Design the sequence.
């Protein structure tokens, strides 16, 4: 059985922070692939391409803090979907930070994939996600078994 596994963080920042926001749905590129056995995940496109037909497990975490650069009434929620070939599989979302100052969500799914199927994370239009040196936004996946 082939060995396929990856884990990546949204950025490789050592200092500072960055908010992502887009006027349209946006594929999130988890550029810091600290594990990429089999090279099925691309840190350049954010897309995992199944090299074999099989059952795969994917998980992701989404972290979003209060944005101190804008007022409370300008805070934006977060929503990220796990996508398979352009179709939403599971979504995690949270309200804009208000009473609390940090929100963390997680999602996961087992997916039967055909060779060439693509899986990625999509930030919803007009929503935000955040990254910093703590690397709290992660995307991981691995082959459980071939079918």
Sequence:
């Amino acid at each position: 059985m082939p060995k396929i596994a990856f884990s990546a963080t949204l950025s490789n920042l050592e200092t500072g922070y960055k908010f992502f926001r887009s006027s349209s749905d946006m594929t999130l590129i988890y550029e810091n692939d600290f594990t990429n056995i089999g090279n099925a995940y691309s840190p350049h496109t954010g897309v995992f391409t199944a090299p074999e037909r099989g059952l795969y497990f994917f998980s992701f975490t989404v972290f979003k803090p209060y944005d101190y650069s804008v007022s409370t009434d300008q805070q934006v929620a977060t929503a990220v979907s796990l996508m398979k070939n352009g179709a939403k599989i599971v979504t995690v979302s949270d309200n804009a930070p208000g009473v609390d100052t940090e929100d963390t969500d997680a999602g996961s799914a087992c997916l039967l994939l055909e060779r060439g199927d693509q899986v990625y994370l999509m930030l919803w239009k007009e929503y935000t996600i955040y990254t910093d040196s703590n690397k709290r936004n992660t995307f991981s996946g691995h082959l459980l078994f071939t079918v």
Remarks:
- The chain has a mean pLDDT of 92.
- The chain is about 0% helix and 55% strand.
- The longest strand covers residues 54-65.
- Residues 52 and 87 are 20 Å apart (CA to CA).
